[in-house]
Write a structure and sequence with these properties.
This protein is of the alpha+beta class. Helix content is 30%, strand content 20%. InterPro entries: YjhX_toxin.
Length: 86
């Protein structure tokens, strides 16, 4: 599966315990997203298009309205890296 660099960064943050906070419109449409690391820092470069690509590939999931987290498929797809600064 081809995973772009911004998607890979987001998956790496999520694999280390991060989460994606989302806001919904009146209905089911997600209008804004924020990727937060386990330390409370916000991931730069994460936007709605990256979020939609991750969700479409089923690499992230949300259960009963909770913040989005990495799925089992996402854990298998993320590349192992010491730090994700490159």
């Amino acid at each position: 599966m081809n995973i772009s660099r911004p998607e890979q960064r987001a998956l790496h943050v999520l694999a280390l315990g991060g989460r994606i906070l989302h806001e919904r419109e009146e209905g089911a449409k997600v209008t804004s997203v924020t990727c937060v690391t386990r330390d409370g820092m916000i991931l730069d470069g994460f936007d709605l298009t990256v979020f939609n690509r991750l969700r479409r590939k089923r690499l992230i999931e949300s259960r009963s309205g909770s913040p989005y987290r990495i799925s089992k498929l996402g854990r298998r797809s993320v590349r192992a890296q010491l730090d994700n600064q490159g």
